[in-house]
Amino acid sequence: GVTPRGFPTMVYSLGEDGDRKLSISIDDLNPYALAEVCDLSDAQSDLLYLAFRKLGGGGYGLDELVGAVKAAAREWGFQKNTLTAVLRKIQALNEFVFFGKSISVGDLVKPGHLSVLDLSGGVDEEIRRTVVGVVLERMFNARRRGEIPPVVVVVEESHRFAPQGVRSYCGSVLRRIAREGRKFGVTLCLTSQRVAGLDKDVLTQCGTKIILRIEGAYDIEYLKPILDYASADEAERIPLLPTGTAMVTGMATRTPILVDVRPRKTKHGGGHQAFWR
User: Fold this and answer.
1) pLDDT by residue (tens digit) across 126-179?
2) What is the DSSP secondary-structure string of the chain?
3) Are residues 224 and 134 in the same domain?
4) CA 20 to 30 Å from 143, out of 113, 137, 220, 226?
5) How far apart, in whole angstroms, are the C-alpha atoms of residue 52 and residue 42?
6) Residue 70's domain spans which residues?
7) Average pLDDT over the chain, rounded to whole?
8) Which candidate, 160, 163, 108, 164, places its Cα nearest to that of 137?
C-alpha cells in the first residue's frame, strides 16, 4: 500500500491568521471577475469592458482604471448615473482587505509542498469565489506556459465556488480546468456534501467519483446520470454505505468498487462542537 506521509504546509489567509496573507492585485482581475465582485448591472458591465479595452493589458492600478472608465464613458456617451455607479463601486475596492501585492503562483506551487488557501474570514461568498477564480486561472495559465510543475488542486465545498444554476467567473474557471486541465498537468479534485448544488458541467468532467454515504434523495437522483458503470441497484446502495466506506466509479475502475477509507491522521478544523462532556 501507500505509506502516509506529511508535506511542508503553508497556509494563506485573507486575514492575519495564516502563515502568509492571501492577496491579489487590481490588475489580476479581468473584466468578468471585476464586474462580479463589484456587482455591476449590464449597462455598468458594458462600460467596464470598454474601459478595459482602453487599458490594453496588465500593469495598471486603480487610478488608471478610473481614468479609463471616465474616458470610455465620454467616448461612448454613457449616462452620468451609470458612470457614477461604476466609479463608486470600483473605488470601494480599496476597502477590501485582500487587495495588495499579487500572490506569487511560483510560491504557491512547489514540488512536495502543500499550499492551503484559508477563506474562512468574514467575507461575502462572491468575494471568496472571485479570489479563488483569480488564483486558479493564474495557476492554470502558468502551468500551460510551463512555469510551474504539475499540480493537484483540491477545492473543498466546491458547490460554493461552482454553484449549479449560477453564472460566475470562478465557475467558468473551474469548468475550463475540469475540461482541459489533464492535458496540461493540472489535476482537479472537488469535494462537496451538497452534490446537487454543484455545477453539473463541472461534475460530469470529473473522470472518477469517490462517493461516501449520501442520504438525501435529491442528491442521489442528481448523481445517477453521471455514475459511470454503476447500475441503478448500486446507486440505491449509496445511502446504506457504512461510515468510512466509499464507492469508487469512473475512469479509475472498470466496475464500481467499495473501498475503506482510514481515519485521518491530520489536524481537523471542522466537525461539531462537544456540548456535553
Assistant:
1) 889 999 999 999 999 999 999 999 999 999 999 999 999 998 999 999 999 999
2) -PPP----EEEEESSSSSSEE--B-GGG--HHHHHHHTT--HHHHHHHHHHHHHH-SS---HHHHHHHHHHHHHHHT--HHHHHHHHHHHHGGGG-TTBSSPPPHHHH--TT-EEEEE--SS--HHHHHHHHHHHHHHHHHHHHTTSS--EEEEETTGGGTSBTT---HHHHHHHHHHHHGGGGTEEEEE--S-GGGB-HHHHHT-SEEEE-----HHHHHHHGGG-TT--HHHHHTGGGPPTTEEEEEETT-SS-EEEEPPPP-S----S------
3) no
4) 226
5) 15
6) 26-95
7) 89
8) 108
How high is the pLDDT of residue 183? Answer: 95
Same domain assignment for residues 16 and 35: no
Number of folded domains in the chain?
A: 3
Q: CA-CA distance, 244 to 260, in Å (whole number)?
A: 6
Domain stops at, among 95, 118, 136: 95
Let me know if residue 272 belongs to a domain: no
pLDDT score at 156: 95
User: Domain for residue 276, yes or no?
Assistant: no
The residue type at 140: F
Residues in the chain: 277
Q: Which of 43-52, 199-208, 248-257, 260-269 has the lowest mean pLDDT?
A: 260-269
Whether the pLDDT of residue 71 is over 80: the answer is yes
The answer to whether residues 99 and 23 touch, using CB atoms and an 8 Å cutoff, is yes
Task: For residues 177 and 240, state if they share a domain.
Answer: no
Residues 171, 200: Cα–Cα separation, whole Å: 11
Q: Are 10 and 48 members of one domain?
A: no
Which of these ranges, 122-126, 127-131, 190-194, 209-213, has the smallest mean pLDDT? 122-126
